[in-house]
Structure of Sphingoid long chain base kinase 4:
Amino acid sequence: MQFQLPYEDAKRKVRVASEIMFIDIESTKSELPSEDRDMKTCDLILKYSYPFSQFNPFTEEFHQQSIFVIINPHSGKGTALEIFNDKVRPILEGAHCNITVQLTDYQGHATDLARELNIDEYDTILCASGDGIPYEVINGFYQRPDRAQAFSKINIVQSPGGSGNAMSLSCLGATSASLSALRILKGKPSQCDLMAISKSSSDEVILSFLSQTYGAIAQADIGTEWMRFIGGIRFDLGVAYEVLSGKKYPCELAFKIKCKNNDEVMEHYQNEVGKYKNNSSTYSNLKNNNRDIQGARGIYRDDSVEFDFTEQSQDKNVSCGLQLRKLTEDDFQLKYHEEFREDTSMRRLPEDWEIYDKDKTENMRIFYSGKMPYIAATTNFFPAALPADGAIDLVVFDSRSKFASTANALLSLEKGTHVWDDCVEHMKVEAFRLEPKSTTPCYISVDGERFPYETFQVEVLKGVLRTILWEGNYTVTGFLENGYSSK
């Protein structure tokens, strides 16, 4: 059988690419499970095109999906609603989804909506916006008395609509809204880690899905809020200014270390990948000679499409994200919060923590910690990040490094090779505490949102965020390939 199939190309934002596909129905069917051999061709393609998806009509769990869409109409360049209506809604309606749309009216509105939402009515919350709305939704869920049930049941996903679309790119490999919609339909529901942040000024705990930063990156992000109308380039301009200024941002830092250098990070990464590589289609796709891996953006396309029904994993629970499970309140208990509340200084730390080199913290230029690889479309800041490895990736730049070295590392962010530069320290930690020491006014950023200038502590909440991952893992970053080539 031969036919032409139009599809959204990950490398293009608007145009639709197409390929000629050849399917040898008879020889393929002979290799299928007996219950699938007599299926109609269209049903067979549909079943194996959505092997892990809750939208697969051939699974016992299938039902018509209800999606609650939250849109910040002022997000990014102010076109989020238009993007959703033009690029996302038609695809969701084509999949017969029940769609409810809610526009936000004020900062924190999405938090209120998520806190009060009737979770029995919906399967997914789609944040058609930048990264601010997912942040608010996650914290709204965290404030619910039934938070374990809410996080267990509802997928929290994003389609691009703002200047920062890290969740869509990291989880779905999509910078275009239409591709993200398609991959939300076809992707695998998975449970990923979140980070819990304790404040020194109050008992309040907030959740973070993306990152925390202090120093030049925070200044470049929060300090350019007034330039949101120009889009993501505002961040690049801010970073350039910070590097040229040569400023340093002193602090004190302590952490529970998991991997102290790149060699240990590589070993950890390989071990985590090894847990699913023999069964997961994700891993086989990395090695597939028919695929052109775009390491610079972590996105791939098929240059020759070969449809193989037998290639897909038959185990729905195989994933780099955790198997779907019902959460309990125990999953939200913090290991280090009470100790932090008793003493927020560095004088009293958990026994298995260590204090980071003070000579380095006194000369800090960039402190950046995170759980997702991509913080922007061309910024692969945490290339070793994994969905549910119980670790926070940490990247540190020293202000004493030569300008050329720092500039070279920052110019390597798109490919994610900066972590191999001598002027960068790259670690994984289970928790950390940071006390800012700058004598001049500066910012701390959490998921791109301004955070109070105070001591804070972060620890992992393992596997509590239910989202949808394209093929069960984060977007390809090229971390191992770059690591081997750097040696």
